[in-house]
Specification:
Blueprint: E1 10-13, H1 21-33, E2 39-42, E3 52-53, E4 67-71, H2 74-85, E5 91-97, H3 105-112, E6 116-119, H4 122-125, E7 133-134, H5 150-157, E8 164-169, H6 178-189, E9 195-200, H7 208-220, E10 227-230, H8 238-243, E11 247-250, H9 260-266, E12 271-274, H10 279-282, E13 288-291, H11 296-308, H12 310-327, H13 330-345
Parallel strand pairs: 1-2, 1-4, 2-3, 4-5, 5-6, 6-7, 8-9, 8-11, 9-10, 11-12, 12-13
Length: 350
């Protein structure tokens, strides 16, 4: 049964049918926020457990109270302006920006008409013309947690129990730096027979040749048995693959935010990441290492101490777990956004 409109104070639109980072954010947050405030999502492609209202009902919203319209895309900002300006719905418009590049003129025009702004990192905040509230993403630290028995888990997953295993998960494409991970792995694994590397994810349309080229590199180096290319797994299975790792690598050349380091760290895995997205605000000296983007020699050099020193790996993994549990719980992200909603519902603008 859909929520009662009279109880709804916040609407989170999702105007994209295909799975994306924004859609995943809405799906993760709205059920948690529903216990804190009257909130519902609207739009296609949302699972049944997410409180949801049909999109057509947005044009018939009662004018009995002010409501927050929380947009995360240009299309959603535009629809909020249409609902308020043409259909006279009582809406306070909020936009969350994850972009880390200059906005187009059209996007700046839309943002200029929002009543409040949120940025997902300090880096994203720099690209906005006025100061937003900065709220970093969090994750479910119960779903992502350290392994009870890593050796048993690796046996179940078909991975070598006695190897040091590093991994890189997500879309396989140049933007994500998958080639940098493979090149660094080739350079390091030749002299380390007890190390394996996992590439897990999907090459979407147009990137299949890129993946094929990476496989060919591993074969040419004689490392096809230790640089493994694994298919994307369902969301509910991914935590086990993080738990099987000794080290996670986030080699992106560009990233809006980037959740994979958070997911790995919550499983007690240290992270070597590039200085893109929100990684500088996630990874600390205690939990891993940061390197320049698109610098494969620096990436390879940063991996060496973690591959060769089990004491350092364990210490960094423990620090990563502690950092996630103290600063990056999804419950805290949800609560921080609810506090923003209440400011807007009280008439505040910024």
């Amino acid at each position: 049964m859909p929520p009662d409109l009279r109880d709804i104070e916040v609407i989170a639109p999702n105007l994209k049918r295909r799975l994306s980072g924004v859609t995943a954010t809405v799906v993760r947050l709205v059920p948690l926020q529903a216990a804190m405030i009257g909130i519902a999502a609207t739009g296609p492609g949302l699972p049944p457990h997410v409180p949801h209202l049909a999109l057509w009902r947005m044009f018939l919203l009662p004018r009995d109270r002010l409501r927050v319209w929380h947009a995360r895309r240009n299309t959603e900002m535009a629809l909020g302006l249409i609902l308020r300006g043409i259909f006279r719905r009582r809406l306070s418009l909020l936009f969350t920006s994850a972009s880390q590049r200059a906005h187009t003129g059209y996007t700046r025009w839309l943002i200029g008409r929002m009543d409040g702004l949120v940025a997902t990192s300090e880096r994203s905040a720099r690209y906005l013309d006025r100061r937003p509230v900065v709220i970093l993403h969090g994750i479910d630290t119960e779903a992502f947690s350290p392994p009870v028995d890593r050796a048993t888990l690796r046996r179940r997953l078909g991975l070598p129990e006695d190897h040091v295993i590093l991994g890189c998960f997500g879309r396989i494409r140049a933007q994500k730096g998958t080639d940098a991970f493979v090149d660094a792995s080739i350079a390091l694994l030749k002299d380390r027979p007890g190390v394996s590397a996992l590439v897990m994810g999907r090459a979407t349309e147009g990137h299949e040749g890129f993946l094929a080229g990476l496989r060919e590199k591993a074969v040419a180096a004689g490392l096809e048995r230790r640089i493994l290319f694994l298919p994307e797994v369902p969301v509910h299975e991914i935590a086990d693959w993080y738990r099987a790792l000794d080290l996670y690598v986030a080699p992106q050349r560009w990233e809006g935010f980037g959740l994979t380091p958070l997911e790995a760290m919550a499983c007690g895995v240290p992270v070597v990441a590039t200085r893109v997205g929100a990684f500088e605000e996630i990874v600390s000296e205690e939990t891993g290492t940061l390197v320049p983007a698109d610098d494969i020699p620096s990436l390879a050099a940063a991996l060496v101490p973690f591959l060769d020193d089990p004491v350092r790996r364990r210490a960094a993994g423990a620090a990563a777990l502690d950092r996630m549990r103290r600063h990056f719980r999804i419950e805290d992200e949800a609560a921080a956004l609810v506090a923003v909603y209440r400011r807007l519902l009280a008439g505040e603008r910024w």
